[in-house]
Amino acid sequence: MSFKNSFKTAIRGLRTNKSRSALTILGIVIGISSIILIMSLGKGAQELILSQVRGLGSATIIIEPGRRSQGPSDFGSLFTDSLKDREVEALSKSSNAPSIEGLSPMVVLSTSVSFENEVDSFMILGAAPLVADIVGVYPETGQFFTDEQTQQLSAVAVIGSEVKNKLFGPSEALNQNIKIKGKAFKVIGISPKKGQVGMLDVDNSIIVPYTTALKYLSGMNYYHQILVKAKSEQVVPQTVEDIKATLRELHNITDPAKDDFQVATQEDIAQRVGTVTSVLTIFLAAIAAISLVVGGIGIMNIMLVSVTERTREIGLRKALGATTKNILTQFLLESVVLTCLGGIIGIALGIFFSFVASLILSRMVSSGWAFAISPSAIALGLGVSGFVGLVFGLYPASQASKKSPIEALRYE
Amino acid sequence: MSNIIEINNLEKTYKDGDTETRALCGVSFNIKEGEFVAIMGPSGSGKSTLLHILGFLDKQSAGDYSFDGKSIDDYGEENLAKVRNKKMGFIFQSFNLLPRTTVLNNVKLPLLYSGLKENLWQAMAQKAIEQVGLTHRINYETSQLSGGERQRVAIARALVNNPQIIFADEPTGNLDSKSGSAVMQLIEALNDHGHTIILITHETYTAEYAERIITLKDGLLESDKKVEQRRKDAKDSFTK
Question: Which value does ipTM take for this structure?
Answer without folding.
Answer: 0.88
